[in-house]
What does this fold into?
Amino acid sequence: MTRIRLLLGDEAIAEGALQAGIKGVYAYPGTPSTEITEYIQRSAAAAENGVHCTWSTNEKTAMEAALGMSYAGCRSMVCMKHVGMNVAADAFVNSAMTGVNGGLVVVAADDPSMHSSQNEQDSRFYGKFAMIPVLEPSSQQEAYEMTGYAFELSEREKLPVLMRITTRLAHSRAAVDTGAGKYETIRKPAADDPSSWVLLPANAKRKNAGLTSRQPHLQELSGEAPFFRTILSEHGDRGIITCGTGFNYVMENNAPEAGFHVMKISQYPVPADRIRDFAGRCREILVVEDGQPFIEEQVRGIAGWNYVLKGRLTGDLPRTGELNPDNVAAAMGMKRVPAFNVPECIVPRPPALCAGCGHRDVYIALNKVLAGYPDARVFADIGCYTLGALPPFCAIDSCVDMGASITMAKGAADAGLWPAVAVIGDSTFTHSGMTGLLDAVNDGSDITVVISDNLTTAMTGGQDSSGTGKFEAICMALGVSPDHVRVVVPAPKNMDEITETIREEIEYRGVSVIIPRRECMQTLARKKRIADNGEEKR
Amino acid sequence: MKRDIILSGVGGQGILSIATIIGDAATRAGLNLRQAEVHGMSQRGGEVESGLRLSDSEIYSDLVPVGSADIILSMEPMEALRYLPFLHKDGYVITSSSPFRNIEPYPEEKVMEVLGSMDNVVTVDLGKITKENSMPKSANMVLLGAAAGYLGILSAEQLMESIRNVFAPKGDGIVDMNLKAFGKGQEYGRRQ
Ligand SMILES: Cc1ncc(C[n+]2csc(CCOP(=O)(O)OP(=O)(O)O)c2C)c(N)n1
It folds into this structure.
């Protein structure tokens, strides 16, 4: 039976996972991966089957919980944006050593061109690093089908499987045939094999040898997978090796008619034998891949140094940034000239903090107070409040990775910088800020931490925030003196009180925490809409 | 037959609802569809764009290639011009003429001058129309109505059917308001 639905790539994956019988999805929000978990949270079938789908505190806790669920015999999925892989990495890499019981699929959503991210890292490297299979869909339909395949592969090979997607696939909608769709949770007996799961050196050495010896087998699978394809051209003898969304741009430009043989890689480790054969058939090869030159570097090794290989490393495609039908056309030797150019008068329209947002009042107050401390530095963090970097505030000096505000302020204070102020959001604080605060308390570091609490994870669309209602208790339990855990309401009418509080806590020589707390304007408006006419956000 | 459409505007102006309606209509009509949405950072009052591709044959790229859009449909005049390189030489710009001013200085005169100098431009005074008809929340459907005669691949009836379908869960009042807005837009589009 066919059942056609318009789905985002993210939603297609979620639907595939539900039909594969998962018992849980574990995730921390992050663009462009968030909609996978949100789809499952809205799913009636998931609710009926008791599929776990509440947000995790960070990507590492998500990865470990999913591994626990796999251990217990159920299928589980973990979703995150690419930088989440850095946080989950310890658990991720070691899960390849233990292996899995119930199928375990990790979805990493990369963001080429950094539409809403701080870097352009390519998650396929993590798969290679951990020596596990990586899948990469090209279309929404394939994303749906590949998810079911991923769980089977994971159980068959007893390994976690990484699925790598990019923003373009995650956030594009297309018709997907999701079939008749049964939603039955799969359950096997729990694992009972400490020699696999206790990674003491004696066990780990054996597991490591086993995993390494299976690499040729995994390579072979990559060349056989249902999604691997070679299309031969009757019009020429140049070749293109491509993957993921790159395949779409290659086909948009009619590669076979233009004289290119096409090899589409959908699974890693790269199928070296297939590539060697393909290279033998082609006069030269262009590698078209979104992300870093991951395939390109490996094909160089397989085809040899004197083989004519083109791609991002040779400048035939841009070294960084997202692929599109136009830069791929150019690399294929076709030129598209626009009929119109962008008129000179067009100026950028950067995003801004919403009107009435509490973060605004926090920055207005901070700027007022810090005007009196020319040496002050504000170490900020990741979230809506990062927009405090832009005019009219220009209020922050750094934003690096989640949690780095507190720890960088601490390090700077250790070096004698004063005042060292950290600004961090509520969700970011529980994600990665708490451990750093403990370091600061233990060292008695002279820092002032502002936890700007809007009661939600706003940047990614207003998901629940793990620490809501617990921040004062957490800070005091970590050892911050109760006298220096101060709560204020960030609103223009309270400006005097807020600035006074900030000034006092900067002058206090030790760890202090100020919690400006007021609900996010977006979640407030959404609640009002739902109350007014039962309308859910779209 | 194929149609490439660029939808543009400022975060919060409702371009994704336009995309949803066209997408629903296209799927019911058995057309292939690819729609590239923008989520994340740019929604906070920043520039937003969504590419819509409709065709009766296979579509590969989610992104509209340079020089191939048949229509740029924009909720905001400057945002319409931002995506001009994607417009086909014979394509149409159908845009609101009401600026969204959250940047200083806003180059209004120059924007209007460029729009005035192009051949295939339809401007719709969304600010005025929505005010006169007290439908402030349905500006996007007015614009869709104005564009209906230019889409070619879908009829106004098919779009109205999808407005009913998509807004149905929000109640009859919302459906009627959006149909009325669509009708106002149609009238306006026909006059140009
Ligand atoms: C490791 C990692 N995971 C996820 C993200 C995506 N992300 C960026 S900001 C943010 C939420 C921040 O929420 P909060 O700290 O409460 O600030 P708010 O946006 O609500 O102001 C998330 C999930 C990221 N950048 N890095």
Remarks:
- The beta strands of chain B are 2-10, 32-36, 47-55, 69-74, 87-96, 121-124.
